[in-house]
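Reposting from the mailing list since nobody answered there.

I have sequence plus structure tokens for a pair of proteins and want to know whether others read the tokens the same way I do. The first protein:
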Amino acid sequence: QVQLVESGGGLVQPGGSLRLSCAASGIIFSIYAMGWYRQAPGKQRELVAAITAVSTTNYANSVKGRFTISRDNAKNTVYLQMNSLKPEDTAVYYCNAAFSPNDYWGQGTQVTVSS
């Protein structure tokens, strides 16, 4: 049984930081590409950041220079460090694990950036 469990969301003021974690089980974590997506109310889900099995990363233009994705294969966990948060970063953040043809999603964690 595959599980992706996100944690670390919450309420933060503009300019603040949060670190999201996604713990995976039931997969060979090291061979999976991992990604963080987000969905704001009334908007489509969008890719925020992704990291391949060999730790190549890519980011949405809107978060470049502010967010960092990383992975710890020993802990089967992927992280998203979010700095300089803005109100427009408010969304539900989802973890994704992909290794064709498999594609798994977590349940999501809410991030709210507000003063």
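The second protein, same order (residues first, tokens after):
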Amino acid sequence: QVQLVESGGGLVQAGSSLRLSCAASGHTFNTYPMGWFRQAPGKEREFVAAISLDDGKADYADSVKGRFTISRDNAKNTIFLQMNSLKPEDTAVYYCGARNLVAVHNVYVRVDEYDYWGQGTQVTVSS
């Protein structure tokens, strides 16, 4: 079994910053955290950011480009999401996704490309 544990969410004011972390543990051989998604109440889970295993490529949703930065520490099998200039519309539960059999140069931006999900961390941005 693979466990993904997200942390770093919270309640902040608009314009603030937060840094999310996602650590993978358990039977993680050939399983890597690769991206962040979010889900607001009444909405489907949507892509936020993804990063390649070799840390050479990243992709972002248009709504977060220029404000969010994804990074990874492969030694700790952990990915991060630095969120700056937060807006009320960023309010959601943020999920980390991991997958097996990763191509080192690829980024994965669809929900159905992921095999494992964390429990989510709540991010609430007040206006």
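Reply #1 (J.P.):
I read it the same way you do. The chain has a mean pLDDT of 96.
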